[in-house]
Write a structure and sequence with these properties.
Elements: E1 9-14, H1 23-32, E2 39-42, H2 52-60, E3 63-70, E4 76-86, E5 89-95, H3 97-100, H4 118-129, E6 134-138, H5 149-154, E7 158-160, E8 166-167, H6 171-174, E9 179-181, E10 191-194, H7 207-211, H8 219-235, H9 239-242, H10 249-261, E11 264-266, H11 268-276, H12 278-283, E12 287-295, H13 304-315, E13 319-326, H14 328-333, E14 338-341, H15 349-354, H16 356-366, H17 368-376
Length: about 375
């Protein structure tokens, strides 16, 4: 610190504590435990998954939009996305899971062969019709494996079998795909995709093999789905796109967005950091505090708290990571100057999740000496 009278300034940039706290709530819980007189800047973060749209809207301001779309199985639901003002105009920020996520088929009806991203296309269409200048879409948590063909149908693309019969965008029919008509494809604003996986569309590391089991696909279905996606790429003459990192994200929606919407795929944290101008926020801080529900090996694979810690390290600012749990992968990485874990309280998991906010505040408050040491280093 520059002088004895200087009151430390803390940048708080937490992700969600899944099942317990939103990113905003987690940041507020941290702030509540800081020593009296310390000032804060709060920037809730997300990496493209659950809470992405709400987190970005909280940071940027804007409006929450409701629209009627189809869920993965074609049932009418209400989905939400955000429209936010930015330097580049009005930007729609959405999550594909709002329309086509596994969270939409928790009633035992999940059926990967019949599931479609049509509703995601409807959300994109709704934002386009509202005249937005850009769309940002996070593609985590999908229930689908249709290569984005369902989305494309909602945007005007027509798929046919060899008998010139129109077929739907779900995998059960797409395996019969023979030719495609894109003449009526809707003109779209620029689309940027928050994508944190680098899987290709097909093969042993592709959408079907890696993510299909999480969506209930059997071994036989995985083989069928992989062959179907390979056929789609060949019919579209886009085998080059199929090999690109991220093409296999969200059951191949990454591929479909690149091919049909000319979208650009970007790591989720990088996109959030750029949109929220996080580097400028961190530069003003004496200490950076970040975290998420489970700080583990996946955190180190490009997730938000790791990105925040690396940014802080590059700026020469100490960082503190806080999580519901903090595994040895995190401590061994030495990415954070110090970590706090709610598990260390010894309370059972259900209690940790139910009282996460209070426990975060208590842990931060009890660590005042540690915090003072970090900002004085």
């Amino acid at each position: 610190m520059s002088s004895d009278t200087h009151q430390p300034h803390v940048a708080i940039a937490c992700d969600k504590f899944k099942g317990s706290l939103s990113a905003t709530e987690a940041c507020q819980a941290v702030a509540a435990g800081l020593p009296q007189g310390w000032t804060t800047s709060i920037a809730p973060i997300a990496d493209g998954g659950e809470g992405f749209s709400d987190t970005m809207r909280t940071a940027l301001g804007g409006e929450k939009i409701a629209c009627q779309v189809k869920d993965p199985l074609g049932r009418i639901i209400t989905a939400h996305y955000s429209i936010c003002p930015t330097d580049e105009g009005q930007v729609a920020i959405m999550e594909m899971a709002e329309a086509s996520g596994l969270n939409r088929v928790t009633d035992g009806t999940a059926n990967i062969m019949q599931s479609s991203t049509y509703g995601t296309g409807e959300m994109i269409l709704d934002a386009t019709d509202k005249g937005v200048d850009r769309i940002i879409i996070g593609i985590g948590g999908s229930a689908t494996n249709d290569g984005g063909c369902g989305m494309a149908r909602a945007l005007g693309v027509v798929f046919y079998d060899r008998h010139d019969r129109e077929i739907s965008g779900n995998p059960a029919e797409l395996k019969e795909i023979d030719h495609v008509d894109t003449a009526k494809l809707k003109k779209l604003p620029p689309i940027t995709v928050a994508c944190d996986v680098d899987n290709p569309l097909c093969g042993a590391n592709g959408a079907s093999a890696v993510f299909g089991p999480q969506k209930g696909a059997s071994d036989t279905e995985i083989t069928t789905l992989d062959a179907m996606l390979d056929r789609v790429a060949k019919i579209l003459k886009r085998q080059d796109y199929a090999k690109r990192p991220g093409a296999g994200a969200a059951g191949g929606l990454g591929f479909g967005l690149m091919v049909f919407a000319k979208a650009t795929l970007t790591p989720g944290f990088d996109l959030v950091a750029q949109t929220l101008n996080l580097e400028s926020l961190l530069k003003t801080a004496d200490l950076v505090i970040t975290g998420e529900g489970s700080m583990d090996a996946q955190t180190l694979q490009g997730k938000g708290p790791a990105g925040i810690a690396m940014m802080a390290r590059d700026l020469g600012i100490p960082s503190l990571g806080i999580g519901g749990r903090v595994t040895k992968h995190i401590t061994a990485s030495r990415l954070f100057d110090h970590t706090l874990s709610l598990e260390e309280t010894g309370k059972p998991l259900d209690e940790l999740m139910e009282h996460a906010a209070e426990l975060i505040t208590e842990q931060v408050r009890a660590s005042s000496d540690l915090l003072t040491e970090l900002v004085s280093a």
